[in-house]
Design brief:
mainly alpha, two-stranded parallel sheet, 14 helices, elongated
Amino acid sequence: MLKYELSTAFKSKRVMILFLLFIVLTSYDLYVNYSYNLTEYLRAEVASKPTGKDLYNPCFASFISAASIGNLPQILVTWIFPIYPLFLYSDSFALQKQCGYYNVLLTKADRKRVLFSRFATAFLVPFIIVLVVLFLNFGAANIIFKGGESFAGLEKELERSAAMNFETFSLLHPYIVYVACIFVFATVAGLYGVFCTGVTFIVPKYTIIYPVTFMVWFLILFMPYSVLSVMQIFAGYSTREMIISSVYYILMVVATTVWAFIYKVRYDEL
């Protein structure tokens, strides 16, 4: 069941469209960083390409760092974030419920197995798409900004602070932290896919699914401990903020998933 759901999802035009959109957004972000950091070189004002401390570190130039001027790609991803997991897979149940496919499916397969495969697919599809795109972006950054050491002045934090915190650790070990953040970013996307699927199971109506998932997303964006703290590296968030926001986020997803699972298994009728 899970294999079939994943195969169907990854063959859909929706997945290909959003995959290409992510590629475009992350590539544009890289282009903006390249154009800004190498302005003098591109204008032929200097003879050689900047290196070392004059060139961005590949981790700083990559997408999650949100270092580009204006942060337009990050804004487009962050502000309409629920669209991505919903469009990739999570809202499919609403259509299947309306056309009767879900009811037919339940006559041929165990309800719990169906629900498990749906939740698993809702996590894995956005997780894998985001993971692949971010690693492609990071790989491109390592080629374009090879040898770069600059963090646009953030490295001065190492001189000011003797204590080890997340920010100083990130600057000392940027590659380890950035790769970890790629997995965290992908996990946030996957978990929100699970949350959106839970909402869809409870109320399978497009007129409710999208407003509710957007409202909840904006709530967790602007709450005191925002989920953004674990989605942006080199942004100055404290370890405490990241831990608390992660706990809030995971609890919200788990609570919604359990509620939806119990509702569909025990109370929902064909």
